[in-house]
Amino acid sequence: MAEDRSGQPARRETRFERADRNFSELLQELRVTQTGVQILFAFLLTLAFTPRFPSLDTLQRVTYVTTLLLAVLAAALFTAPAALHRSLFQQHAKPQIVRWSSDLARAGMVVLALALTGSVLLVVDVTLGRVGGFLAGAGTLLVCVGLWGALPRVVRRELVPARAAASAVNMPEDADDDEGMDDDEDEDDDEDEGIGRSEDVRPAERRRPSADIGSSEGVRSSAERREG
Predict the structure, then answer these.
(1) CA 179, CA 173: separation in Å to the nearest integer?
(2) How far apart are CA 5 and CA 57, in angstroms?
(3) For residues 105 and 77, is the Cβ–Cβ distance under 8 A?
(4) CA 207 to CA 62: how far, in whole Å?
(5) What is the distance in angstroms between the CA of the first residue and the CA of the last residue of the chain?
(6) 77 close to 110: Cβ distance less than 8 angstroms
């Protein structure tokens, strides 16, 4: 039986069916990330119309503009798969759409991490000071990198022993199945030989009564001749 990368039995699906399933899963992921981007973008837009915004210094304004542009770029990257799918609708390009959409989603996650870092840096800088803002921004970036980048790599490393164990478990089972098939074939051969032998014996057994009857009739005729 065919297996996928995780060592589990592969799904019986065509290339386009797999692409449809992968694209559906990708859309579910994008719905989650788009919600965060929309909230962040709305917050940054309203921030420019607050009474305290004119009192921001140059670094804070630069941080604000940079973060706003990063939020716009993240929103564009996360909505690009939908536009790509609509532009190539009924073009039999679903595998290519899935591959490009996955790359766009990865880029969007990187940009979103930078946008979150800039937002936290700006807010904490305004409320607590420059040092606190940089520390909070660095902590936010580390959390995003750890959860979105390092954690998948750790899980991927854990899959390697699982694949090896799965392959080791499946190999003896396959060997036992092969041995069982060989035994069944041997038994079938023995049965066929037994049937052939029985068929060879049956005609001989059937011939014996006729031979005995012929010999007894010969003895009777010779005895009648002698008496006569």
Answers:
(1) 10
(2) 53
(3) yes
(4) 112
(5) 87
(6) no
Task: Tell me the pLDDT tens digit for each residue of 78-136.
Answer: 999 989 888 888 888 888 888 999 999 999 999 999 999 999 999 999 999 999 999 99
Scored b (16 or more CB within 10 A) or e, 36-62 reads ebeebbeebeebeeeeeeeebeeebee
Q: Which of 100, 103, 73 is nearest to 88 (CA)?
A: 100
Q: The pTM is what?
A: 0.65
Q: Smallest Cα–Cα separation from 134: which of 60, 56, 82? A: 60
d(CA 89, CA 111): 28
Report angle CA 7, 8, 12 to the nearest 5 degrees.
Answer: 125
Query: Long-range contacts made by residues 76-82, C-beta under 8 angstroms, separation at least 24?
Result: 77/104, 77/105, 77/107, 77/108, 77/111, 78/30, 78/33, 78/34, 78/37, 78/104, 78/105, 78/108, 79/34, 80/104, 81/23, 81/26, 81/27, 81/30, 81/105, 82/27, 82/30
